[in-house]
From TrEMBL:
This is Nucleoside recognition domain-containing protein. It comes from the Bacteria. Coiled coil: none annotated. Residues 42-153 form the Nucleoside transporter/FeoB GTPase Gate domain. It comes from Jeotgalibacillus haloalkalitolerans. The keyword Membrane applies. Keywords: Membrane, Transmembrane, Transmembrane helix. It holds the Pfam family Gate. The chain crosses the membrane at residues 37-54, 61-79, 91-112, 133-153, 165-183. InterPro entries: Gate_dom.
Length: 197
């Protein structure tokens, strides 16, 4: 359905430009946008390579494992159904760490692995478990210290100070993550009360 909408928009835009006499501007816009897309991808590749390299160094140095052990009490409070030393905890912490540094694409594989491990613990496979819902909230509204994607976009667009978004984004994601966790806890209390009725 989405593909049909895109085709409709493209065809209607081209037909409108032909009848409106602006086909030259449309052609120019197409080629300019293609060039900008390539520049954007190259900018993303540079910043992602940098941060993925740092994450790999941290992983090989054992820093991620150390962070996972140090943060396990917090993980245990957020995911009370998660057994100690379960692999899901490591994947969750790695996902949170990647999101913390603004590496949404790098965080996705760890998020998928965490969900698979949580599904193994799910006693009702047809429904999302409490831990799965909590992890989805935590992942969607993740705290981001360094929004690498936005910084690289601002850098590629020639912003005077690409990093001035860091502190506001950090504060905003703390608020969003706190709100998501509170909503998750309230929703769980409401739904668990209904289930016990």
């Amino acid at each position: 359905m989405v593909n049909l909408i895109w085709i409709f928009m493209l065809v209607s835009g081209l037909l409108f430009s032909i009848f409106n006499g602006t086909i030259d501007e449309v052609n120019k816009g197409l080629f300019d946008s293609a060039g900008q897309a390539v520049e954007l991808v190259i900018g993303f590749a540079a910043i992602f390579t940098l941060w993925l390299g740092m994450m790999e160094i941290a992983r090989r140095a054992g820093l991620l494992n150390l962070i996972t052990k140090l943060c396990f009490p917090l993980i245990q409070r957020l995911f009370p159904d998660l057994p100690k030393n379960h692999p899901a905890a490591g994947y969750i912490m790695t996902n949170v760490s990647a999101n913390f540094f603004g590496l949404g694409n790098a965080a996705t594989p760890f998020g998928v692995k965490a969900m698979k491990e949580l599904q193994v613990l799910n006693h009702q496979p047809e429904k999302a478990s409490r831990s799965m819902v909590t992890f989805l909230c935590l992942n969607t509204a993740a705290v981001t210290f360094f929004p690498a994607t936005i910084v690289s976009m601002r850098l590629s667009e020639g912003a005077a100070d690409p990093l001035d978004i860091v502190i506001p984004a950090f504060a905003a994601t703390i608020c969003s993550c706190t709100a998501a966790i509170i909503y998750d806890r309230i929703s769980w209390r409401i739904t668990s009360g209904k289930n016990h009725d």
